[in-house]
Amino acid sequence: ERAVLHARIEQRFEAMLAQGLIDEVQRLWARGDLTADLPAMRCVGYRQVLKYLNGECTLNRLKELGVAATRQLAKRQLTWLRSQSDARWLADEPRPLERAARLVEDARGGNSEVR
What's 89's DSSP letter? Predict the structure, then answer.
């Protein structure tokens, strides 16, 4: 569901900030060999943190921009995934990683120990 996805995106971005995203970008930028045009510095999250570090937005606005950019990325990813006719969709619960591992093993022709 879109509402669940949006809530998880917001929680994940908040967690990234809490785990030091701003400090990470600040340290990378302080190296002096990076520019805002490099692909690595234009990725979702980094781009918004750079705006914050350059004084172009507040912390609250950084959060809004980061969540919005992540939602846009997720929408593009879902659009691409829906175009894949052989894609296998897994519900988030219960134990999606184990089910994904089983599907990979089955596709490779092996027997998975994860059941």
Answer: -
Dihedral sign from CA coordinates of 13, 17, 21, 26? positive
Phi, psi of 70 (to 5 degrees): -70, -40
User: 54-110, pLDDT tens digit by residue?
Assistant: 999 999 999 999 999 999 999 999 999 999 988 888 877 778 888 889 889 988 886
What is the value of pTM for the model shown? 0.78
Q: How far apart are CA 25 and CA 66, in angstroms?
A: 14
Q: How far apart are CA 60 and CA 52, in angstroms?
A: 10
Alpha-carbon gap, residue 57 to 55, rounded angstroms:
6
